[in-house]
Amino acid sequence: MKIAIIQTKPIFGKVKINLSDSLAMMESTTADLYVLPELFNTGYNFVDLSEVQTLAEKSDGYTFQKMTEFAKKRNCYVVYGFAEKGEMFFNSCALVGPDRLVGVYRKIHLFYREKLFFATGNLGYPVFDLPIGRIGMMICFDWIYPEAARTLALKGAQVIAHPSNLVLSYCPDAMVTRSLENRVFAAMVDRVGIENRGNVDLRFIGQSEIVSPKGEILVRLDAEKTGIAVADIDVSLADNKFATEYNHLFNDRKPELYL
Ligand code: ACM
């Protein structure tokens, strides 16, 4: 299975431009699963709720239409982050396939000012069994809670698609541990660039990457430039949870001792 990670540099609020720039990047490579950043179509640094209200879309909105068109043309799957207009506003990501919405994840661990605009995700951590593999999703700051990746792995995910907009420096290295401790592939996809809006200046750190179940960084992109990287992976490697012949990482857990 080929995964493509698409590291973009969105312009805040310019949904149509951000979408067409991202699609142009996606068109330039062939993959079974494309992963885009968190909030890739809107930008990240919302100043107030009215901006969220203006830019958020339903899960079957304009961005979904464009992405499913691409997925149909290429017979592939796409994961992308977007501001979701549901019963409340959520910082969500969608997994789409040819002509269909496979599922949505709504970010559970909100970061910084996201808490002013978005509700805590209410869909748990779903895992989707597809012809290309079992795919789970988490979003950016979920990385700092090991329970997020663990839950996805315990539910059978072979690949964690992880749309991100990183401003702290730790996540690219931390995902090596998340992959290793759960023996899963991770496709962490960040953006680059700066968003100075209102009184809040944010710089995004790029370094999107694909990490193997053994914690190998298969590809890692630049900290400042947009880019694409592809890895051809054997998803079944994520089914082997033995670290040594004596250490099965899941069977040896001691949940009765954990709080
Ligand atoms: C983040 O969760 N966007 C840092």
How does the SSE layout of this entry go?
Blueprint: E1 2-7, H1 15-27, E2 33-35, H2 49-55, H3 62-74, E3 77-85, E4 89-97, E5 100-106, H4 114-117, E6 127-130, E7 133-137, H5 146-154, E8 159-163, H6 171-182, E9 185-189, E10 192-197, E11 200-205, E12 209-211, E13 217-220, E14 227-232, E15 242-244, E16 247-248
Parallel strand pairs: 1-2, 2-3, 7-8, 8-9
Antiparallel strand pairs: 1-14, 3-4, 4-5, 6-7, 9-12, 10-11, 12-13, 15-16
Bound molecules: acetamide (ACM).
Acetamide is lined by residues 38, 111, 140-141, 165-167.
Give an overview in words.
The chain is of the alpha/beta class and about 260 residues long. About 20% of the residues lie in helices and about 30% in strands. It has 6 helices and 16 strands. A 6-stranded mixed sheet has the order 5-4-3-2-1-14. A 6-stranded mixed sheet has the order 6-7-8-9-12-13, with helices on one face. A hairpin with a 2-residue loop joins strand 6 and strand 7. Helix 5 (about 145-155) runs parallel beside helix 6 (about 170-180). The N and C termini lie far apart (about 35 Å). The chain binds acetamide. Acetamide binds near residues 141, 166 and 167. Acetamide binds near residues 140 and 167.
Q: What about the largest sheet?
A: 6 strands, mixed
Q: Determine the fraction of residues in helical runs and give it as a percent range.
A: 10-25%
- Using the coordinates above, name the CATH class: Alpha Beta
Instruction: Give the strand line-up of the largest sheet.
Output: 5-4-3-2-1-14
The radius of gyration is 17 Å
**Count of separate DSSP helical elements:** 6
Task: State the distance separating the first and last CA atoms.
Answer: 37 Å
Number of strands: 16
CATH level 4 superfamily: Carbon-nitrogen hydrolase
The assigned CATH architecture is 4-Layer Sandwich
Pattern of helices and strands: EHEHHEEEHEEHEHEEEEEEEE
Count of the domains:
1
Indicate the structural class.
alpha/beta
**Mean of residue pLDDT values:** 98
